[in-house]
Amino acid sequence: MRVNSLISRKMGCTFGALTALLVTACGSSVPAVPVEKPFALGKGGESVEFDFQVKETYGYRVKLHVFFRHSDDLRERKALIDQLGERSVANGTIGNAGVPISLRVRVTSIEVQGPPVDFDQTTGKLGFIDASKDFATKEVLKISNQKLLPGTYHIRVDNLHPVPEFADRAARISVHYDEQGK
Question: How far apart, in whole angstroms, are the C-alpha atoms of residue 16 and residue 69?
Answer without folding.
Answer: 51
